[in-house]
Design brief:
The chain has two domains: 34 residues; 105 residues, Cytochrome c-like domain (Cytochrome Bc1 Complex, Chain D, domain 2, Orthogonal Bundle). Helices cover 44% and strands 0% of the residues. Its main location: membrane.
Length: 167
């Protein structure tokens, strides 16, 4: 059943595996451990490393004025899984026909989250841009699980597309 030789083999196997592991660890540390042993032999001089290029913020109204409705239609495909463009026809989300300028949480027959239902004001292009950038930040507690549109141009294009549907 379980004799001395079996025990010796098992203990030897465990010790051998531990030895291989420790030797591998030691070799990896020697290869990848960076330690400074004095001054660098060659120093690369960098000019202007202190200056950081400033990012120019563009006004949303300026971006919206040059928005492309065709590109907005393409970006809207991400939204079309949950939203419909037919007046009164809701999907997982409320219909978006006439969204620009409409009161927040005002689509009849749609059960809004408490956060959006309690919001005041209209869906102006600026409000829509803030919501589309990251819905969970704009309206904490919203049931909309979309992560958002990071590019301001994409948001402007979608808003221009939605606004063009009612004109």
């Amino acid at each position: 059943m379980f004799d001395t030789m079996t025990f010796t083999k098992a203990a030897g196997g465990i010790c051998g595996a531990l030895l291989v592991f420790l030797l591998g660890k030691w070799a990896a540390e020697e290869l990848y451990h960076m330690e400074s042993h004095g001054e660098a032999a060659y120093v690369i001089e960098v000019e202007g490393g202190e200056e950081v290029a400033e990012v120019e913020e563009v006004d949303f109204a300026t971006v919206l004025a040059s928005a492309d409705v065709e590109k907005g239609a393409n970006v809207f495909r991400k939204c079309s899984a949950c939203h419909k463009l037919v007046d009164g026809e809701n999907g997982t989300g409320p219909h978006l026909y006439g969204i620009v300028g409409r009161d927040k949480g005002s689509v009849s027959g749609f059960n809004y989250s408490d956060t959006l239902a309690s919001m005041e004001g209209d869906w102006t292009p600026e409000n829509l841009s803030g919501f589309l950038e990251k819905p969970s930040s704009y309206a904490a507690g919203t049931s909309m699980s979309f992560s958002g549109l990071k590019k301001v141009e994409d948001r402007a294009n979608v808003i221009a597309y939605l606004d063009s549907l009612t004109n």
